Amino acid sequence: MKTRKADPKGVMTGAHYLDGDFALAEGALAAGCRFFAGYPITPSTETAERFSERIPFVGGMFIQMEDEIASIAALIGASWSGKKVMTVTSGPGFSLMMENIGLAAMQEVPLVIANVQRGGPSTGLPTLTGQQDMMQARWGSHGDYRIIALSPDSPQECFDLTIQAFNLAELYRVPVFIMTDECVGHMHEKVVIPPADEIDLVERKWYEGPKDAYRPYKPDTDLVPFMIKTGDGYRFHTTGLTHDERGYPVINAEVQDWCVRHLIDKIDKNAEKIIKLEEEQVDGAEVVVLSYGITSRVAIKAVQDARRQGIKVGTIRLLTVWPFPEKRVQELAGKVKAMVMPEINMGQVVKELERSVAGRTKVVSVPHCGGGVHDPDVILKAIKEAVK
Amino acid sequence: MSPEAKNPIENFLRMDRIPHIWCSGCGIGTVVSSFADALEKSRLDLDKVAIVSGIGCTGRVAGYVKLDSFHTTHGRAIPFATGLKLGNPELKVVVFSGDGDIFGIGGNHFIHACRRNMDLVVICVNNFNYAMTGGQVAPTSPEKANLSTAPYGNFEYPFNVPYLAEACGATYVARWTVLHMRQVTTSILEALNHKGLSLIEVITPCVTLYARRNRLGDGLNLLKYYYENSEVRHGADTRTLDIRFQEKITCGKFIDVEKPTFLDCMNTHLTKTLGEKFRPYGV
Description:
- The complex is a heterodimer.
- By secondary structure, chain A is α/β, with parallel strands linked by helices.
- Chain A contains 13 helices and 18 strands.
- The model of chain A has no long low-confidence stretch (mean pLDDT 98).
- By secondary structure, chain B is of the alpha/beta class.
- The mean pLDDT of chain B is 96.
């Protein structure tokens, strides 16, 4: 893995008062994103506005496309031109992007999509929060593939995790989603942007061998193939069809097996390196609350109240939601009485928790249909019932 | 020809992927030959030429041409190409796809690329139907033509493609039948040298589906029929360019105007508005 320091041109070093949407744009600029294609949608639009305002002075491209389908198609093209690329959207736009998310996964194209989630389904609650696209992020495009999804809980983390998202996208040649939500997107807080020389950026895995030996889909030792830029004279081919190492389409079950397993293995086998969790008082806990994004901040109140009432509660905050921290929850499964998972959906990531612990620990879902955050007392009640 | 002699087109093709999948009598390969010929004549640095296709029979062109080549999703070749071009403006980007791909599922992207005068060459092979999936009715199918999803004949109005392109802002528009090989080559060459959105529509027989279903004879018959039933009217009013079932096809170069491209407009405007703080992009 090659890294370099951020280009100071894109880094607005200092302490700022920003909302999450703006912090996403600043994170992208600091991470070296120089191509943004998007389409307006509430509650994510401010990110596009901020990027369009800042990019002329940094040097790069902002284009408002005719729809979200065009936006992500343009991102894939620009990523093949060697740019770091990003778009931002919300539920309906995320749905429209799904087909080309599959193309990006299949062609192994680094790109970052922030989804500032709102309540759904359909037009749902454009101005109110939700966490209902978590499974869509994982499975939304057809076929089998893997992606990475991160979930920030504050404007500061919108900045920090956007840089992480770019690093992961480049490292694994994969679409990375920043699954934030309306609350974090519109929440104003202090955001500290470090100096450029304190921001480490992962370089794309550029191929440097002889031109005629280049194989766009030959996995390297870390399972990730090397990449090249369009226009560098490789005359390469890439397709959304099932393909071999050369990127040539081959329509049979054997090559399909190789191709699909590769997309899955490069993430699954590197999962422990990808996953970032924040744990607190998990050792000796009788119950662990798992949460992500805005829900983590609401859960804190419930956890504090439960501790005051004498319950030993640990917390795990998922900064990485996909891949799911299966190994870690399995380690805890025999040790804690229960795991409680509040989410602003009818129970999505909790299903993955249930699957992982496989009945060895009681799992309690605390659902919410969206439009607001949980009442901490509802989470507290679930904690108390879980340890009964 | 000595055994070592190569067909000059081999330099432009991925010979390790030949034979191709197109039916004998199909015109797509002929358009590819004209494209290769135009590339050679253009003397462009081929390392800097990229080709993007969508899905369908013509969508397979990108897979056979030895350039940086992208086989994308159905209808999305134009926005993909837009990203590729804006990601690296020194590239010459060619979209090579079919009528269903560009004007059906991809219609919205086509009109917006024209509106922006995006610097792309769009080569559209129009065979009047969705061929890869079995000859279904398309937005270009002539009225009365029989298609597998219009089994009693098509009753929808088709697009007049050059009129659509001109109305939306394309700055180079030509139409030929596939047997106009030299003219197709010339138009592609002109388009490669043109700054802005160029559209070349090439009328091509689909011998296996459209021709058979409508009892129009074999591929060779239909190639000749289209050619012989065409008239060349350069600069014709694009409102007059409707194609009716087995009637005269007007060909020629209809539009060739200079107009600032998307990037020109962006750089000019932001330089004027922001002054020296703005560094023009991609120049």
